[in-house]
Amino acid sequence: MRELHISKSNIRDTALVDVASPPLAPGAARLKLDLFALTSNNVTYAALGEGMLSYWDFFPAPAGFGKVPVWGFATVTESNAPDIAVGSRFYGYYPLAETLDVTPRKTATGFIDTAPHRAAKAALYNVYTDVSADPAYDAAYEPEQTLFRPLYGTGWWAADFIKQNAAKSVVLSSASSKTALATAHQLRQLGGAELIGLTSPGNEAYVRESGLYDRVVLYDDAATLQAEARRHQQSDPHRTWRRAHAQHRHRRHRLGGAPRRRATPRSQARILLRSHLRRRAPQSRTATRRRHDPRLARLLSRLPRLRDRPAHHRRRRHPSRLGQARRRPSPTPGRPRLQLLSLPLCAVSPHEILEKSCACVWS
Predict the structure, then answer these.
(1) pLDDT computed for residue 202 by the predictor
(2) pLDDT tens digit string along 213-222?
């Protein structure tokens, strides 16, 4: 059988070699590659063949070389697996070679390759779908499926993430790429967001003709989009702050942390009273009126006198959360005698959140 070997050190160095087919192992099946797509996505597989993703490890090759993965259709020519019949056709992940030997485990829609060298890989790449059990299969559109189906899943997940975050405007760079087109297609089905395609002058007509984007903007005009986004955000900073605060509480809850409690009248009174006690003695009638705040008086009426409560009735508070309870020196005449607690306060500026809450989706 013929295989295309690519040098791991220089992906431009390739060789088409003839390799003798080994005897088929027990429980294995051999598939012959019939149709596959070769796009820039496959160049990415080769460029990222080593390292964290390790695409070269899917299909072993001689030392110093690798087999670039492709997506396509293949037919079973030999089978020692009882659940895989000769002549069956499967869509999946194959090497750029004439045949592939797999160790199949039967599933409802096909099989999973359980070869030991692929066990640590993402399950998405080890799944092979039988065309007779695939509701998305259409024999008239096999070439289109090999081109678009691998990255449509990526676009679907990206669109789902964007929809969950309730984005009103979405800017997709490389708007003519398959991932961007798939994302835009799914977002248009979901609705509720303005889709802006960012592309080059050479692809502008193609992107417009796709009909998937509400607006098409060239890369040279991308700075104007950024300015418009900033003006839109600054028009309602409180809304952005509330949304960011709600997302923060949701993330803390998902990670197992308890959401921050709402401020109670007791805590509000302590904070407000402490700020009043720290002020200097009033020097004018205006300052005197400000000191006798009716809101403060209302809160104080609801706040029990801590010093009058028995010691065994006082609630112990952890120092890391509310600080150590301490008695202040005797206040000046006319001020209430209350035991105050040092409360850790945290202030967040809405404008500070605005600078960090803008996100872009890159395809």
Answers:
(1) 93
(2) 999 999 998 8
H/E run at residue 171: strand 169-172
Residues 6 or more apart whose CB falls under 8 angstroms from that of 159 comprise: 183, 186, 187, 190
For the chain, domains (ranges, CATH) are 2-137 (3.90.180), 151-237 (3.40.50.720)
CA 189 – CA 95 distance, rounded (Å): 34
Tell me the pairing of strands 69-79 and 29-36: antiparallel
pLDDT of residue 291: 53
First to last CA, the chain: 37
Q: How far apart are CA 110 and CA 130, in angstroms?
A: 5
Alpha helices in 201-349 (DSSP H): 204-210, 222-234, 237-254, 265-277, 285-291, 294-302, 319-322
* Model confidence at 76: pLDDT above 80: yes
Residue found under tokens 């509310």: 322
Q: What is the pLDDT of residues 150-179, one digit of tens each?
A: 888 889 889 999 999 888 889 999 999 989
Q: Where are the alpha helices (DSSP H) in 67-131?
A: 123-126
d(CA 196, CA 170) in angstroms, rounded, equals: 6
> How far apart, in whole angstroms, are the C-alpha atoms of residue 167 and residue 183?
14
Global pTM value: 0.58
